[in-house]
């Protein structure tokens, strides 16, 4: 009996080649094999080509009774504009856990003379983690699933490039990961813009028609002259307190209330979206065609991942829940101040139909053949920046007890992990055992007072030579993230993402500072250069941290206090000594409270480059007053989002965008130049 | 040995139920089975769920040596706004040919005692049309593939509803057909809008930078201080007649020519697109954000299917050809009048990468289990309105000699069939044997002088009771379509799409008029009510027509004459006695001729409701002067398009759009209310 696994040991090369070259050097495993190793049968998923499959939500119903695995969230310290390698760490850790540290069952069978089922028939094991590839050949165990966000195509063609990880820690095939995937963002764009078209068209039609004419068109008589309400109309009727089911019974006053939404154009918060970095759409005027009769309006496009529908996808827990959330998204107010929803416009059902496949997470694989669920990618800025609840839930059931699900939270822990805990976990009911904080010597030096780090410009000398003092000074940033994260009741493991220029003394300083600040452990990880093998120590630390947690999850704030109290609790965790509200913010808080939305969690829209509102304030600033410029709400997704400063929701293209290098080899069909 | 086929005989019900109910009453066959019946192995396609697969273009290379089947194009008479059932006839005919008239090999095996391969080992047959499901069980032959366009999602949620056919002649699953499909239109939207963003951003960056600064950014020095051109830049250098390969060798003048595109904003013809009926985007102003520094510009959104990229997809013949066409799309002129292309902007390769999966047609099935290839759906208005060349080519190889490929051409034969012949067949090199003209008693009555037919309003009494004289008078329209179509050297079969209100005498009158006008045959077809069984006579007529054609394909005009001569040849076929050009049209013709584009075929943008430019002129108007308001060009797709009157390229939503009825049953996951 010999040991055998289908996970792939990748031969690493030094210096590390370009990401696309590493990705292309490996033949991906057919995704049905990855699925099979997770105990998924073809009924559980839909293939999208050979290397992607959508795992159907029904898996969750089927596994309802089974136990979850360990749940690990990956956050980071306050980053430089270059990013500190959270995605790469997430992938590398999973490669370590799945391909090197698969400790649960160490029996692999390649003998043809023994039947697996017979062999294991008297061994007690957790079926969720075992799989007979056939009755004779192979037994495979995966104890880990990586959960990551789907990247926006905007940055892929703009400045940043793709988001599949890097070096020897990547999701593959990286072109399929970065482009289209299984169409979820396209579905979001379509749904978002259908709603936008419905808003402007409705205002237009209302402006030219009497209540009665509107009503006649909304509830037209059939051939027998009988009118009826469509199903979605009953939602509006219920909201208006009208319990009649026959349109002919409505009084003229009820007809007016029902048929005329009377949307105040100035109140519309719903914008159109596009998954492109198109800065010229940041502010536009629409409706200038002669047929639109002067109903012009100023509005804007956001990038698709900033759509509330993306946040809904990330936070929903079932198809029925998604239908509900999409229908209750608020697009603005009526002139009398009532919130107007997608269902008021009759379009909540159609939006759900457009999103019905998007709700299923996409299964892919790492370079080393461990499974990855890619799902949702809400803006980490005006939204909560975490991948989906349903992907995490499915993954936790698939790995089962003793297995690991590693999920990434966008930006630094002050934003990503905070929203993961207070928004995502609140809606999912899940509790992580371990939170990772990714740190780099580079970023810590910046926090310690190093010169500014600017994307596209060469790094200052300070970042390339040893400077322990600078690192030690910068650890105040790391320490505050550790303290804040630990307060949720999880064990914090610091992952020091090692660069070739880092020195032993520098790395040692970070480890010391981490433990002093209360980290469960702090580990140096070289997954970028070595893949899973480089993250084995991190994997072991995470395993221990997960096995040794005893506390319940503690939120930063309860839901049943006022909006301001919640904002202030978060501000305090940033180090602020107080909060200042603009007049507009005060007005909005008052309005949302009046509209009954004050019980929602808070999703701060703040710069990721500082704990404070000032991106230049590095380290661990304190004593500042956090200014709240405005307060908005994503009612369908389920959060209030205060704006700290101005948030751009539509990136631009540089003079020489990434697309200059991207092409296709028309003989092989391979994508070239994608980074 | 008993006869057995997997094609499905659907039990028909009278009166015909709603389309979605018929579609939902049938369990679709797994698409891998449909593929297998076409001799496709899993290497030949990528699954997209259980009922869709993308057939890879490599199939075409593999089958290069094999012979084509018969090629049938479906056009129609000048339609009413209700449509005359071209799609339904296309699907119904294929169900008849595939499920009822499979005449090539009539031996089906269900005996378990005989091995198929052995049994047929000494029979000479065309392997392209045979398939052993297993060594023992079943032999299936398909002799027909339907090729149809992918519908736009705009109308699906707007007024018209879906486009999967109707009654017992449908493509299923109809929700998957109508929504997202395999993402091709989403890919087009993404590619189109990436190019649009590249245009405006380039103008912006050029406005704020010197030639040298632009050049420095376009060709930045690497770490060693060396500059290089990206591959796509060599296309521009070649166009400029610069053969240098080292950026440092360029003279300041060459640097200016290379780096500054100097786009004239007023000349930009490239618009953004969205697959939504969003009338408020028909005319907009962009660039009003403060960071865009006043570079505002008036522009518009079209519906995605009107994008030139859709026309490229429909007319391309290979991946290399698509790369070429996308790169040479002209977006406007420089201030000195030179055409500016996608490759000048450095984005042709990225556009191809976005479109690399879209080039593969999607395999689906009819209600009766015959195969369908869905691919491309260019606007039948400003573009050529036909499905893709690659789908037709693959289908012709797959059915092989004696098999049938039935492809639909949008709108009436004056537009759809004309463009099929003169544009699509010109680029593909394919020759149809038979052209179908679909006629309805309803439309013929309208052409004979019946009252106006208006969508959404009840039909006039004249259309519901017998009126042979009105039908006979209307046959002038049909007769001209027959004459025009016959002139291409194909046999014309008239398919009279039977409605329940049609009478024998009326149907008889059409048949007589058709034969008198030179039709090869004219057949009554009841495929809407009866599926394939209702189109058996039509199928037999088409078989005979295909087997008895001897002439070569004759185009309406040669390519090597002037733009005006070509326009005039087409105008003559409409019945016009002359053509009148606006000043703008004259100017554009002169410009395109000067730019070297006069050798392209012509794609008339004309109302589909009349042979003439006047939608109210029914029947067969003649002696009119056809006005050409403007002339535009799709250089990448490969045609010049004169505008006859104003063409809307962005539909709107009515007061009560289709989406009011569309929802999802959250317990079963089924789509409801889609029409």
From TrEMBL, chains A, B:
<comment type="similarity">
    <text>Belongs to the formate--tetrahydrofolate ligase family.</text>
</comment>
<keyword id="KW-0554">One-carbon metabolism</keyword>
<keyword id="KW-0067">ATP-binding</keyword>
<dbReference type="GO" id="GO:0004488">
    <property type="term" value="F:methylenetetrahydrofolate dehydrogenase (NADP+) activity"/>
</dbReference>
<dbReference type="InterPro" id="IPR020628">
    <property type="entry name" value="Formate_THF_ligase_CS"/>
</dbReference>
<dbReference type="Pfam" id="PF01268">
    <property type="entry name" value="FTHFS"/>
</dbReference>
<comment type="subunit">
    <text>Homodimer.</text>
</comment>
<dbReference type="GO" id="GO:0004477">
    <property type="term" value="F:methenyltetrahydrofolate cyclohydrolase activity"/>
</dbReference>
<keyword id="KW-0436">Ligase</keyword>
<dbReference type="GO" id="GO:0035999">
    <property type="term" value="P:tetrahydrofolate interconversion"/>
</dbReference>
<dbReference type="GO" id="GO:0005737">
    <property type="term" value="C:cytoplasm"/>
</dbReference>
<protein>
    <recommendedName>
        <fullName>Formate--tetrahydrofolate ligase</fullName>
        <ecNumber>6.3.4.3</ecNumber>
    </recommendedName>
</protein>
<comment type="pathway">
    <text>One-carbon metabolism; tetrahydrofolate interconversion.</text>
</comment>
<dbReference type="GO" id="GO:0004329">
    <property type="term" value="F:formate-tetrahydrofolate ligase activity"/>
</dbReference>
<dbReference type="InterPro" id="IPR000559">
    <property type="entry name" value="Formate_THF_ligase"/>
</dbReference>
<dbReference type="InterPro" id="IPR027417">
    <property type="entry name" value="P-loop_NTPase"/>
</dbReference>
<dbReference type="GO" id="GO:0005524">
    <property type="term" value="F:ATP binding"/>
</dbReference>
<keyword id="KW-0547">Nucleotide-binding</keyword>
